[in-house]
């Protein structure tokens, strides 16, 4: 498709004051510019603008300027072994395995206390916990504040099993399911006890850095926050972050 058909310069001028715009806004723009009303043609133009790095999707039918930067967390050999061990023994269970050191990329003050998080369907959490205990892992099942403060040994690999919220936005990296940014941000906002180190000004730094560096799907985050019954609170917090929508 030619650049003339896309009207990129006019497009940028038209939307320059909008951080996020919707498909309907883009349809209106092309209708004003060249009378184009066909949704298939406009959809093809949107696709072309994304391919050229002019636009990025930030939610269902929502766009902003810029190129998508996808986040892929590190999946260490230990994470892969752990995931496969659980998956082989619980093949029909949804699993998400990650290590809290992934926060370090986004934090101002790095923490030295990390743990592996093994999130599995609620009905399987206890069985997975006992399975790992039998395998001699230092494992805890949904620990409370006191256990986290008193009993998590230093300088050892710690494993925490907890229920996976249904419809959690996990992502597949290779053959394993692990954390996505959408899930990470909602979880750190909702779980003050588990992510105590990441609260307060650190949480604000995490949100700002994530939104500055990577493309995050707002709709996906809000759907998940809704599953966690925190949608309004989360959305209000998100609006206070300086890099929101940028």
Structure description:
The chain has 246 residues and is α/β, with parallel strands linked by helices. It has 2 domains: 3-65, Arc Repressor Mutant, subunit A (Orthogonal Bundle), CATH 1.10.10; 77-238. The protein is built from 11 helices and 9 strands. The protein has helices at 3-6, 8-14, 23-34, 39-51, 77-89, 125-134, 145-150, 181-190, 201-213, 218-227, 231-238, and strands at 21-22, 55-59, 62-65, 95-99, 116-120, 139-141, 159-163, 171-173, 176-178. The chain has a 4-stranded mixed beta sheet, covered by helices on one side. Strand 2 and strand 3 form a beta hairpin. The longest helix has 13 residues, at 39-51. The protein is elongated. The chain starts with a helix and ends in an 8-residue tail after the last helix.
Radius of gyration: 21 Å
Helix content, binned percent: 40-55%
Order of helices and strands: HHEHHEEHEEHEHEEEHHHH
Question: What is the number of helices?
Answer: 11
Number of domains: 2
Topology:
Blueprint: H1 3-6, H2 8-14, E1 21-22, H3 23-34, H4 39-51, E2 55-59, E3 62-65, H5 77-89, E4 95-99, E5 116-120, H6 125-134, E6 139-141, H7 145-150, E7 159-163, E8 171-173, E9 176-178, H8 181-190, H9 201-213, H10 218-227, H11 231-238
Parallel strand pairs: 5-7, 6-7
Antiparallel strand pairs: 1-3, 2-3, 4-5, 8-9
């Amino acid at each position: 498709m030619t650049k003339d058909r896309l009207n990129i310069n006019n497009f940028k001028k038209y939307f320059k004051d909008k951080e996020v715009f919707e498909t309907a806004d883009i349809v209106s723009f092309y209708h004003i510019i060249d009378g184009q009303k066909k949704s298939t043609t406009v959809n093809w133009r949107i696709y072309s603008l994304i391919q050229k790095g002019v636009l990025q999707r930030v939610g269902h039918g929502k766009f902003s300027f810029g190129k998508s930067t996808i986040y892929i967390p590190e999946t260490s050999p230990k994470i892969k072994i752990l995931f496969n061990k659980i998956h082989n023994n619980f093949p029909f269970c949804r699993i998400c395995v990650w290590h809290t050191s992934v926060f370090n990329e986004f934090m101002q003050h790095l923490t030295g206390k990390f743990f592996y998080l093994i999130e599995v369907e609620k009905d399987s959490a206890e069985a997975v916990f006992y399975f790992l205990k039998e395998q001699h892992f230092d494992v805890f099942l949904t620990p409370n504040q006191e256990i986290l403060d008193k009993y998590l040994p230093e300088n050892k690999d710690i494993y925490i099993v907890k229920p996976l919220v249904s419809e959690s936005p996990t992502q597949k990296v290779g053959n394993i399911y692990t954390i996505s940014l959408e899930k990470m941000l909602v979880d750190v906002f909702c779980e003050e006890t588990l992510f105590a180190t990441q609260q307060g000004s650190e949480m604000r730094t995490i949100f700002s850095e994530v939104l500055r560096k990577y493309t995050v799907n707002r709709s996906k985050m809000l759907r998940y926050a809704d599953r966690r019954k925190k949608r309004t609170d989360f959305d209000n917090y998100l609006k206070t972050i300086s890099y929101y929508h940028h």
